[in-house]
Design goal:
The protein is globular and about 50 Å long. The mean pLDDT is about 90. Helix 1 packs across helix 11. Strands 3-2-4-1-5-6-7 form a seven-stranded parallel beta sheet, with helices on both faces. By secondary structure, it is an alpha/beta fold. It contains eleven helices and seven strands. It has one domain: P-loop containing nucleotide triphosphate hydrolases (Rossmann fold).
């Protein structure tokens, strides 16, 4: 039985979608079958981060309502283990039946090792639907004080509707701040109120990879890509340091 993990954030601009795509690609490269679901109804862009912007994709609602089946999914061109369901552009969250979505996720767990849900930014309806049936949540935040405060608010909101474990991923950390964070990991966890899954450095190759429509982990093995590989290993329960030694 696979595991559903929701990538969420308290606000936009944290790089959540890039992180979800990069971790998914790393898991697939490690031999796991991975399904990415873009939950940003009406504003989809996970396909770009996965390098699949030119490929036609099924919306997750078409599988949830039985219009199509899992046999209709095509793997990502760069990995036979990686699959994508995009967000619908003609529906709203009010149109999505929670019971049907929960049953759909159960079917996903039967077919994939990992189901990564890329939630829309903020703590609205999409945040809740992405996380309420997940087995684990990853809160993506920045490393500055305001971002960590937003991450703590997102963690607090999660606790109002799910008991699923959650961890924080601190993204786009500048080198000076990275060195300080490594020394004060306990402080970071205390401020957000969650265990720390990983720290990802600021890396100009992330937007470059997206612009070239190539998954980050296949564009480079350094910087943020290396950090995402460590995060993927930690998700799998493999003992791995937070940062490169």
């Amino acid at each position: 039985m696979g595991k559903a993990v929701a990538f969420v954030s308290g606000k936009g601009g944290t790089g959540k979608t890039s992180m979800c795509a990069a971790v998914a690609t790393c898991l697939a490269a490690m031999g796991d079958r991975v399904l990415c679901i873009d939950m940003d109804v009406g504003l989809r862009d996970l396909d770009l981060a996965l390098g699949m912007g030119a490929e036609p994709q099924l919306p997750f609602t078409d599988l949830a309502d039985g219009t199509y089946g899992f046999d209709d999914l095509q793997p990502c061109p760069v990995s036979e283990n990686l699959f994508l369901l995009t967000a619908p552009v003609t529906k709203t969250f009010a149109d999505i039946d929670e019971g049907a979505f929960r049953a759909f996720l159960d079917r996903c767990r039967e077919r994939f090792d990992w189901c990564l849900l890329d939630a829309p930014a903020g703590i609205g309806a999409g945040f809740r639907l992405s996380a309420v049936f997940a087995d684990e949540c990853v809160i993506v935040t920045g490393g500055d004080d305001a971002a960590l405060r937003d991450g703590a608010a997102a963690a607090s909101h999660l606790r109002t509707f799910t008991d699923a474990p959650a961890r924080v991923l601190v993204n786009r950390v500048s080198p000076p701040l990275l060195r300080r964070m490594v020394r004060t990991v306990d402080d970071v966890m205390d401020r957000v109120g969650l265990p720390l899954l990983g720290i990802v450095p600021e890396d100009s190759r992330v937007p470059l990879a997206c612009a070239k429509q190539k998954p980050l982990a296949l564009y480079t093995r350094k910087g943020a890509a290396s950090a995402c590989l460590r995060i993927a290993r930690r998700l799998k329960g493999i003992k791995t340091p937070l940062t490169a030694r």
